[in-house]
Amino acid sequence: xxxxxxxxxxPPTLAVRIxxxxxxxxxxxxxxxxxxxxxxxxxxxxxxxxxxxxxxSNLAKHATxxxxxxxxxxxxxxxxxxxxxxxxxxxxxxxxxxxxxxxTGTLGAGLGAVRRMASHFxxxxxxxxxxxxxxxxxxxDQLAACDEEVGAVCLPADGEQESGxxxxxxxxxxxxxxxxxxxLGHGPAAAEAAQTALRAFRxxxxxxxxxxxxxxxxxxxxxxxxxxxxLRLHEGRGEYCGVGNIRVLTLGPExxxxxxxxxxxxxxxxxxxxxxxSDLALxxxxxxxxxxxxxDHRWSQAPxxxxxxxxxxxxxxxxxxxxxxxxxxxxxxxxxxx
Length: 338
Hints:
This is SpoIIE family protein phosphatase. This protein has about 350 residues and is α+β, with helices and mostly antiparallel strands.
């Protein structure tokens, strides 16, 4: 049996809107605290603060509607800082990544310093789409094989401290299994249902998907219930099994290939008889996306080329930033096979 890539007790993603330069200091302080809680040793918490500060400063100076998303790594063992904005983009991206390059008369250490300090760094920019960046920081002894294979963002509804959504990923010897769960409503009771579902999932991650769903359903009987989506990725193919309004789709460079939702019902209250598994043919360079109804499903009707070619961490950030419904909890998980 594999080990979970995420800890179901971790808090939801912290979103820091960079609408004033003072927000940069808020983000830097939060990144340092998150690094300390994640157990990163030595100078790594200070490096996390510098990464958040540099990415936040770029948003404050250059961007429109800039947000930093701070969270433990979806793949475990560290933290990540995601930056997203709505423009105007970086037409000379490679020059911007070079030390000493500046458009504002400063020393120009920002993105070059982030790329040096981060265990993994990726960035994409488009004139119409804005800029997306992901900086991940791990302890030296942590494996980083999955750095671009899994991305996730989990945001509570506006005004809530806890998210009624949750997600996790577990790797076993020959496959990757993911779950996204949406507790009914939002707030503490929904969060309790979501965390109960994750704990049940962790007990049987390599069982057949209908059996996993049944186990989660039984665990949720004393909660308000939840929508549950289960995804299993093998080389070249995927399987989906779910109940409720979790959406799954496969996204490749040429467009969306599959769109599925779970069967009607509520895990914990009413589970359809006879678990049904849907097969997914995977694009060799595509990504599978799972999301709750806190992400507006209309994003997938005609996603632009820029979106279709994003790696999983940046795709998750893009969908959360551009298509989130703020009155509800919102979770998006993007993954490729191992």
